[in-house]
Amino acid sequence: MSEIIKVSRREFIKTGLLVGGGLVLACHIPLGGRDAAAAATTFAPNAFLRIGTDGSVTVIVNKSEMGQGVYTSLPMLIAEELECDWKRVRVQAAPVAPEYNHTQFGAIMVTGGSTSVRSEWERLSKAGAAAREMLVAAAAKSWKVEPSACRAENGVVVGPGGKRAGYGSLATRAAKLPVPQEPKLKNPKQRKLLGKPIHRLDSPAKINGTAIFGIDVHVPGMLTAVIARPPVFGGTVKSFDAKKALTVPGVKQVVAVPAGVAVVAEGFWPAQKGREALEITWDEGQWAQISTPAMREEYARLSAMPGLAARHDGDAPTELAKAAHPLQAEYEVPYLAHATMEPLNCFVDLKKDHCLIRTGSQFQTVDRNAAAREAGLKPEQVALETTFLGGGFGRRACPASDFVVEAVQVAKAVGKPVKVIRSRDDDMRAGFYRPMWYDRIAACLDDKGYPLAWRHTIVGQSIIAGTAFESAMVKGGIDHTSVEGAADTPYAIPNLLVDLHTTKNGVPVLWWRSVGHSHNAFVVESFLDELAHSAGKDPYQYRRALLANHPRHLAVLQTAAEKAGWGTKLPVGTGRGIALHESFGSFVAQVAEVSLDAAGQVQVHRVVCAIDCGRIVNPDTIAAQMESGIVFGLSAALYGAITLKNGRVEQGNFDTYPLVRMQGSPLVEVHIIPSDEPPGGVGEPGVPPIAPAVANALFAATGARIRSLPLTPEKVMAARSKA
After folding, report:
1. What are residue 587's DSSP bridge partners?
2. Which stretch of DSSP H or E encloses residue 609?
3. Other CB atoms within 10 A of residue 330 CB
4. Of the four listed, 121, 207, 476, 576, which is most buried by Cβ atoms within 10 Å?
């Protein structure tokens, strides 16, 4: 049975040093200049693969498993080329080390941007292929035959005359051979694993309860802390009285930390009760009066003014000025919380010359380095062990490393191992958010009804400005993540202007699943639907006409439409909407079928999804990611909104920030387009099309055009009364 191995960095190193009877491989890269033979017989910190003398195959995974299936899809890449027995494959989380850095994002270990398979396909495939070649060479040498006379299959090397040797018996000899630098990959037609549904390796532990998430971490003598944070962003503590808190049974300490006041106790509940008993006077700072209505008013004002051009084809302003009846609309989307099912947490054991961190991180190198700075240690003195993540969506990849730094601060003040927990309320009221956006968009049509000119002005905060990534990701004042999905639209529009106003205020913002695509897809695909109806054309055919030179877009669009029965009759009061979006190297089209109940609540009955994500690793994972992305995006479309009043976030938990529940989840069908193109992402591309598909379906069903998310009953009924 395959399994997930939980090993500390110390154990990892010890095990690696003891593999004289096994094979440890870094394979094609990056050996860091070390002698290849030495790397094969001693611990190699850049290894992705370990083969034991018992025939077990351990894959070291450098991506965080947060439900997206990388603990299965990445080992499949190695196992395919290795020709091993999949039942012998085990998984181990990688420690923080340069060898595990992202192949596209530079010198950091990170999981995000739907890049896990895309970034690791070549490296891990070559790692498996190199190991296979070494095992075959070891067997051939033993049998005194040419390697070409041998082959590998299912964990065994087969030679002339029916000779057979298992990988375990060959591991020691293979470890003494040079590592091939350019191993030959299999012919795609010979693949046995890739493209087939494979059960996930992390499922058994999650089903039987042995999986360790960050919130499960416990060590003897450990304390638990919660932090009282300012009620408004940027606030600080003026003074506090801990007397009552210290009378709560189980509370051990109350300490001031830069983030606020930490209550440290023998467990979460006494810490929580202690925090409730605290008496604190706050200095609320400069953002104490900000509110959503005032911000919206300012955003709307800015949207009427020219911004920085992110894309400028032709002369949209002139064409629009000449048009007799240009179409115009304003769209809005609110701040959104990540609302991970597992609340944020971080365990820290801080010593004088060493620090151990256990947490669910998407940003290991950044978090490790931030912890080191806070602790006054060198990065190599900090070990960060990655646990399972109960949801990430970008929240656990924060450039500020807020929840990790806070935990180190508490550990410094307490002097004992401590786990700091943020309740969901804590994170929802004092966290990081998908920015609020306001979009003003206008277009005019040619004599055939297609867009002649299109102007899209976007207003909102940059999630990159002010971070360490600004120099690389903000060019000419344009944060690419603010305009992605709008400035790179594939539709054939001869005169196109997309411009941007970047606002500043005290609200912390961060990437949220699918980042800028999440809001731009809603605006672009909704407005395109408006243009189609204005031109008296079918929205599906309208898109086809504008995508004539984009075969991959057309393929998913056609598949989704055909599988959904586009054009066939639906029950009275039910409508279909279609939307299409390219993001993270993948192409996704969705058709939603919706109706409205008597209270004005949108009911989404069915979603048909087509995706082209290039080469397929595990179709089960792709389907699951589309399903989860649709439900995630649907939650935001129907319910999601973080609002501010007097500087305070008005939502706190799932009672005021609802998610789609089981009884409200639609039937979802996923159709995967076969492709030999390079792999695209699957974790995020399922999110962007769902909101416009539902909004367009609502229009088809009721005639109500909603340009503001979420699609609340109040908005729907108001729009319907005007339809």
Report:
1. 582, 612
2. strand 602-612
3. 17
4. 576
